[in-house]
Design goal:
Layout lengths: L10 E8 L9 H16 L13 E13 L2 E13 L6 E15 L16 H21 L5 H14 L16 H9 L4 H14 L7 H21 L4 H19 L7 H10 L4 H4 L5
Parallel strand pairs: 1-2
Antiparallel strand pairs: 2-3, 3-4
């Protein structure tokens, strides 16, 4: 069987609209919204790269609605993505991010269009922004700084969205929002995050099937790289972003398989990611 590269949609996304917290008898609007969002994000061509069908990025968007009134929605948005590990049937989490500042307008059957050069709606901008961040992070795990052009696209979405009064697009809207996420991803100040992301996956996880010991050692080295970022910016947003995605995986990786000297890595983890201190204790390497 042969696979022909096509200029195709980059994402294999699942969008879930959870309306459990909304007191609304007619649930149809939420089902229509969910269908519209799935169609929008999965049929949009986000880049000019040629992809095989099996190369699409698996990701999910869970919209937890908290309020709905007169076409106005309030929610949180959990964005997750993953990518396959070379020569295995394992998918590794790349992004696990919770956006708490989700407010948008939507009328049932309203068409959703993405335009690179104009602001269409807050809903379209939200999905488009995270689509480019997901594609950028994925690219960073395969090629050093491979995501840069996609972060520029996310920045363009953000800049255009600043015309709206909706929260999350401006530096004054909080310390851990869309503005700071893309600002940090693009900034040289936080370069160790992207360096570690690449080393962790290409030198580490992708070698685990053929050389598990060397793979583990490369993963430890990638984690240790993050200490430099911590020393420069102890409260760096991207450290939280990294470990929100990776904590379960790190614990599972080092609880099993070939034993390595984990003491130095454990000490660094407790220092740079103290918010997961109880999880690091579970590793008995």
């Amino acid at each position: 069987m042969s696979f022909i590269p096509i200029n195709a949609q980059e994402l294999n996304a699942q969008v879930i609209v959870n309306s459990d917290l909304v007191n609304q008898t007619n649930q149809q609007i939420f089902k229509t919204l969910e269908q519209s969002l799935n169609e929008f994000i999965n049929t949009q061509v986000w880049t000019n790269q040629e992809l095989l069908n099996q190369e699409k990025i698996t990701c999910s968007f869970v919209l937890n609605l908290s309020n709905y009134n007169n076409d106005q929605f309030e929610a949180t948005l959990q964005v997750q993505s993953q990518r396959p590990v070379f020569d295995s049937n394992y998918d590794t989490p790349i992004m696990n991010f919770l956006d708490r500042d989700i407010i948008f307008s939507y009328q049932e059957f309203q068409p959703l269009f993405f335009n690179k050069s104009s602001f269409e709606s807050n809903l379209v901008s939200l999905l488009s922004f995270y689509a480019y961040v997901i594609i950028g992070l994925d690219a960073d795990t395969f090629v050093e700084n491979g995501g840069s052009s996609y972060y520029e696209q996310a920045l363009q979405v953000l800049n255009l969205a600043q015309v709206t009064s909706r929260k999350g697009w401006k530096p004054s809207d909080g310390t851990r929002n869309r503005f700071w996420l893309i600002d940090n991803l693009r900034a040289n100040t936080f370069r160790e995050y992207r360096e570690a992301l690449y080393a962790y996956h290409r030198s580490g996880l992708d070698q685990m099937t053929s050389a598990p010991l060397e793979g583990k050692e490369a993963i430890m080295k990638a984690i240790i790289q993050l200490e430099a970022l911590f020393l420069r910016r102890p409260n760096a947003f991207l450290l939280q972003v990294f470990f929100d995605a990776k904590v379960e995986e790190i614990v599972n990786l080092f609880k099993e398989g070939p034993k390595v000297d984990f003491k130095k890595t454990e000490t660094i983890l407790k220092k740079i990611a103290p918010f997961f201190g109880s999880r690091w204790k579970q590793i008995k390497a």
